[in-house]
Amino acid sequence: MVTEISSGKAAQVHLLTLQVQARFGIQPSRHVESKLKHIFKHTAEHELGAWVAQLNQLPSTDGEWLSLVESLTVHETYFGRDKPMLSMLRDEVMPMLLSRKENAGNPSFKIWSAGCSTGEETTNLVLLLLQAMYSLGLATLSGNGELVPLPNWRLEVVGTDVSRQAIATSKNAQYADFGMGSFRDFSDQELKQFFVKVDNVADAMPGVNYYRARPFVLRWLKFQQHNLLSGRPAVIGCDLVICRNVLIYFEDVVKRQVQEIFHDALLPGGVLILGGPDVLQWPQRYQRRFGNGGAWYVRKD
Ligand SMILES: C[S@@+](CC[C@H](N)C(=O)[O-])C[C@H]1O[C@@H](n2cnc3c(N)ncnc32)[C@H](O)[C@@H]1O
Predict the structure, then answer these.
(1) Domain encompassing residue 57
(2) Measured between alpha carbons, how far is 72 from 36 in angstroms, rounded to an integer?
(3) Number of domains in the chain
């Protein structure tokens, strides 16, 4: 998509990309600039200038900024994304953390999925956690396939994203099953155990089935809007923080700031999981471990 605009407007757009970077971490790129050029192609140069000047006075939490960022973020996500990493979480990372909590007499588990997009990753984490608990005898399996933690356990799995639209979709928790949709890499057996078909979906795509996680999964989920550049973690006291396919959009200095808040969010001994291409920015603060699905980082005391 190449949209030609006047050089004056192009300069305004460029200034805007710098602000977007400073406030939300999203790096100026040809992709971002061309999206902005497309958005403003019918706006007069003086109007654009006035709007940018006005926008610069507003806090990043203002709806105007959030609406703009909505159109610049990439929300690609699906259940079962990066299977080796998810299996490693279920079979190695979560059992280690759960056993530690149990031995310490603190039967609780908190996860932060940062940059969760439309909620598939966060929901997937609940499934993995319940499976890991079941393997350790910390959850029971009912006749109709429900995995239920022992009553003394408290679980909290929180997904956050800067996009209000993505968070609204996460809360609605209704996912379409079509070719490259949310279930593209998910087994039928898991779909049957953890999800239930939703009928009468408003604006449903013809011929597409929709599913929502069953109540025994949904009860542990929370979603909230949060900008990773806000300087504070969305959640604290976490056993596990996971952030995949988000930091790749940020420049190095921002990656460092964001990983600093992940450190603040974690309990000592808690685990940080990053995406495959992400580099750990504070290696001295973690013990690095390698599993079948890649690296994971244990926060030092
Ligand atoms: C490609 S999705 C990744 C979703 C999921 N983590 C996964 O791996 O499947 C990237 C998400 O990062 C979010 N994001 C980008 N900048 C952000 C920021 N400054 N604060 C919070 N979320 C941000 C986007 O809105 C988008 O939903």
Answers:
(1) 7-70
(2) 8
(3) 2
Residue of the CA atom closest to atom 3 of ligand 1: 245
pLDDT digits (tens, 9 = 90+) for 259-276: 999 999 999 999 999 999
Residues 153/138, Cβ–Cβ less than 8 Å: yes
Span 206-255, pLDDT tens digits: 999 999 999 999 999 999 999 999 999 999 999 999 999 999 989 999 99
* Cβ < 6 A, ligand 1 pocket: 24-26, 73-77, 81, 115-117, 121, 161-163, 166, 227-229, 244-246, 249
Q: Strands 238-243 and 266-274: what pairing?
A: parallel
Sheet holding 174-177, edge to edge: 174-177, 209-213, 195-198
- Count the helices and strands in the chain (H runs, E runs): 11, 12
Residue 87 falls inside a structural domain:
yes
Task: Tell me, yes or no, whether 33 and 124 share the same domain.
Answer: no
- pTM for this predicted structure: 0.95
Q: Is residue 50 part of a domain?
A: yes
Q: What is the CATH number of the domain that holds 172?
A: 3.40.50.150
Question: Which residues on adjacent β-strands are paired with residue 160?
Answer: 114, 224
